[in-house]
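Troubleshooting log. The previous run stalled partway through. Resubmitting the same three chains, unchanged.
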Amino acid sequence: MPLLELENVTASYGAVQALHGISLSVDEGSVVAMLGANGAGKTTTLRAISGLVKVTGSIRFGGKPIAGLAPEEVARQRIAHVPEGRGILAQLTVLENLQMGSCLRRDRSGVKRDLDRVFGLFPWMGGRTGTTAALLSGGEQQMLALGRALMMSPRLLLLDEPSLGLAPTIVRSIFETVAGINREEGVTILLVEQNAKLALRAAGRAYVLEVGEIAVSGPGQELARNESVRRSYLGY
Amino acid sequence: MAGLDRRFVGWGASVFVLVLAILGPLALLGKFTTLEFSYVWAFAIAIIGLNLVIGFCGQISLGNSAFMAVGGYCTAIMALRLGWSPLATIPVAAGLATIGGILLGIPALKLKGLYLGVATFALAFSVPSVIRHFDAFTGGSQGIFITGAGKDPFGLVNSGQLTSEQWLYYLGLVLLVAFFLFTRALLRSDVGRAMRAVRDGETVAQAHGVNLTYYKTLAFALSALMAGVAGSLDAMATSYVGPDSFDVTVALALLVGAAVGGLGTMVGPIPGALFYVWVPLYAQQIYKGRPDIAYGVFLILLMYFMPQGAVGGFFRMVGLRDRIRQRLVAAPEPAAGGTAQTTLSSRGLAPPRVDDPVSGKK
Amino acid sequence: MATELLLAASFQGLIQQIAFGLATGGLFASLALALVLIYRAMETINFAQGEMATFTTFIAFTLFTSLKLPYWLVFPITIALAMVLGVLVERVVIRPVERAPVLTLVLVTIGLFSIFNGVTGLIWGYVVRPFPSPLPTSPILLGGVGISYQDLGLIGVSTIVLVLVWLFFTRTQLGLMMRSAALYPEMSRLLGVRVGWMLALGWGLAAGVGAVSGMLVAPITVLDPNMMGAILLYSFTAAVLGGLDSPVGAVVGGLVVGVLLALVGTYIPHAEDLRVAFGFLVIILVLVFKPGGLFGQAQVERV
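Second attempt completed without errors. Output:
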């Protein structure tokens, strides 16, 4: 059952067209990866879903059309978007960042439960709730961003380049966490990554973008095994 | 319009307006209107100065009414107490005001944005009280009445060839044209480029070797100079200066005039000065009850629809006309996504979607 | 013996002046706080803050005279009405230019200044009116210094308002959302925050604080449409002195400006008029050494 469906979505930044008719679907409970070179349109696709760029075409979430909604309304559908660069609220503390994740929720017990779960996933956070977010390391910031997204109790998690700028060991642990979130909580994940190898390992399905269009798509394992796909599109 | 065409039209229009302006008082305008226009010229000079420092150099300076006060009082005191002819006081007024501008420039170097704005605003605010305080010198709350303010040193007014309103009108006009041409030349030179660089990003400008101190101080000094001259002319036109002649409302009205005309444009100060002088009068007519309300509503609407001011808005409209004309005449653009198609087609992976050049089929 | 008496007398006098200064400063502090709230929300100065405060104070006056409501009711009702007014002004007038450059916004607020001033004069006229004070004005002696309950009330209310605002922003969810929306609008949107409404609330809060300021000023001066003119200017000074982005700075700045004005007025002979100019010099001095104001953060230019 597709949770998210894009049909023939185009998007432009002013006069420059970045997406030329993207169609993809993300099944509920799955992890889908979007791969491709810089400038291919991966980030733009996520921004299109979140309502940060004007689009034409159809975007359906749980059957409901959401194209054209303002970003805050898209977020209220319980779509959590962790943007490129993590979007940490730098001058606020770790706890305040997490609280911003749950700022729309009314169920205080649910919020407390989720907060404990986040502290369970990232044990270091519990002791540093008062630390200003800007002082955290890159890896810690990525974990904070993930934790904050989880505080939204999202149905869909949009992750933009979680590995960017991070050391390999930390990246691995982040991907393990992401896979765990999907496994244990059933959160659907749409993942944008340049590190194709790692992404394909985590993803059930993958789309490869090139110059604003879908060039190839298919099950993650297949794409990983296909040598010509790997060499032409994924760089390894 | 080709670039050359536009410049020709620009020059043509300017000459036409200038001829009109010269003939105005002689043929078209009555006494009162002529005097009103001398105010317009004076404030246009002040606004050119303000436009220079805010629009082209990016420093929010709201204290120019203080320099107008320096100029106005200088003229008044020298004309009345020392018997100087008003015309001769103008260079002195300009000089003193310039010194004031340089002095202001020093602390202003360290202030940015709104902090600078509020600090200069406070300067403008303190002017009336300082004037009142040094009353032995300035005549305090009484102010100074300038006799013979409308007399020229060439005896034209005395001999009846010009009325004093006309003299003040032409004096203002000559000075305005002089300052306009000067500023225009300045802005087209390297100095102007440097100032714009400071406006657009100080750190970057500095990295490119622009001496921030020099250019900021220069901008402050020049704008103070022009404010001083404007204050001098204003004093002559009114034949009076008082502590409230150049208070905060003047400072604010100058800012509004500069923005309404168009900050960062060359011609903006003219419509800005017209706005400054005439709109309060018209606001009175539009809404007899409370002209402030009409003034405020007009200002807000202007900011909604023409935030770059009258001149900027005009250029936008002219630009629009050009683009529409291009649309009708130009060749059809290549199909959207053409580049992408080529890339994928060359990889043999995407079906061709454009017309097949051989068979002509889609 | 004589010298000691003189010293004691002048020290006494100094404390007295400082006390008066603090009371006056309380007036500037509350309006300065309103200015800072709007600056933090959208990096611009609301020139109309004082006029909005005057308008709401006139509403309070009408509540007194026409509806004959007691002070303890009028005070909160006026604050509530002012907050609604602030939200309305933001949603109707400011919203179309929310993202415009600073100068455009400043000019819009100047327009609002004119409108509010005119409307106040239109509705209530320019007749000068007395405004009731909730606290007695007769002086009491506190450690040898004469100060009235009203003066104490001024200092006290400003401090209480500051504390309440601080608690709101640091301890409540809504306050956190407003801070986040002001600092990181796009990311806050992605977290579901309706940033436009946060801005409106900011204006509402500022208007509420301004209303308090107006009701503090009115009993001391007379109630007329131009009441807040000079206060606004001293409040600008106070806000800049304390740092435009610091609420604490606004209150401290206000108190400092109040004390400075009182001291200059008393100790520098014949300098009544120069108080303002002196204030200007003080700001310049402080800003040269601390460009962001006493408590503010120096503005960082993003390259």
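Takeaways: The two ends of chain C are 65 Å apart (CA to CA). Chain C touches chain B through 53 residues (CB under 8 Å).
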